[in-house]
């Protein structure tokens, strides 16, 4: 007979990390989703919109990505004049983030502005 003891701590583990310039916020704010929010609200302010988990935003990101793809010339008018950020960069960011949310639906969202 023996005694086994364990002290266990559950620690958060990042399953996805992304970064995008605030210069693309204006572009994202012009991608109007069908729930009254914008892509900006989903990307930059999920906590203020009751979005806590990846599963809460996966479909919203998909919708936003498709809106961006449907009107590239319109959204390119919001490319930052200083060259920091671009339409293509926002599309790629949203696509990768959407895929990560689909792969990890129970992951908790954490954003740092």
Description:
This protein has helices at residues 25-29, 39-44, 54-70, 72-76, 87-103. It is mainly α and 113 residues long. The chain has one domain. 24% of the residues are buried.
Mean pLDDT: 95
Radius of gyration: 18 Å
The helix content, as a percent range, equals: 40-55%
Quick one: how many beta strands?
0
Low-confidence stretches: none
Structural class call reads mainly alpha
Shape: elongated
In short:
With 113 residues, the protein is mainly alpha-helical. 44% of the residues lie in helices and 0% in strands.
Keywords:
mainly alpha; 44% helix
Architecture blueprint of SSEs:
Elements: H1 25-29, H2 39-44, H3 54-70, H4 72-76, H5 87-103
Helix pairs in contact: 3-5
């Amino acid at each position: 007979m023996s005694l086994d003891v364990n002290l266990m701590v559950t620690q958060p583990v990042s399953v996805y990390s992304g970064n995008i310039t605030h210069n693309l916020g204006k572009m994202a704010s012009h991608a109007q989703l069908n729930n009254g929010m914008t892509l900006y609200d989903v990307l930059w302010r999920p906590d203020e919109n009751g979005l806590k988990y990846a599963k809460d935003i996966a479909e919203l990101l998909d919708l936003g990505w498709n809106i961006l793809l449907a009107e590239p010339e319109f959204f390119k008018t919001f490319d930052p004049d200083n060259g920091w950020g671009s339409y293509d960069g926002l599309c790629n960011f949203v696509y990768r983030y959407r895929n990560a949310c689909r792969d990890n639906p129970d992951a908790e969202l954490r954003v740092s502005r």
